[in-house]
Amino acid sequence: MVQAVAVPVTVKTRLGWSDDEINILDFARRLEDCGAALFTIHGRTRAQGYQGPAQWDWIRRVKQAVSVPVIANGDIDSLEAAIACLSQTGADGVMCSRGTLGYPYLVGEIDHWLQTGQRRPAPSLVDQLHCARDHLQGLWDYKGQRGLFQARKHMTWYVKGFAGSAELRQQLSCMTSLAEGLGLLEGAIAACSPQEQASGSPEIVAITGPVTSP
Description:
With 214 residues, the protein is α/β, with parallel strands linked by helices. Helices cover 47% and strands 8% of the residues.
């Protein structure tokens, strides 16, 4: 495959099939010998699914075993987790997946910390509801009614942890039109207190490559 394409070939994989069959070190070495340019390692086995903690120590071992960049994945659900993972594994970067569900600001927070060593201001509730509204609109623009149905689960990830969120979450999970969903979110935004509107208004950062340590 490496010889057949003009772009770098990268690999995302898990540690192995189960704790009894962790073969990632041999697998990574063989793939590097075949020309793999980068690895993203999810620190769980296939048998684990998403249960139990990610085994970051195995990612550290992969990093020590190969010469190409290694991106760590698994349990990167906060800035603190990203910092700890980079420290423990020595990885060249981290990949966030489930940690961004309902909180896409996470990627920008990690990138900002890596660039400056400082924390970005946390988004306000209004910021997050605006983001949910834009996400809903974007899914509709891209996929139409199918996007609206997909948006139901995404809206429930955004809407939590504030007064009235349970009822709003239930309503959004059953919305049948774009206008209904936008109306529910606009109503929630209008109901926010001045304190819930105050923040540093962080932007959503779109990063085309891995977030890497300096």
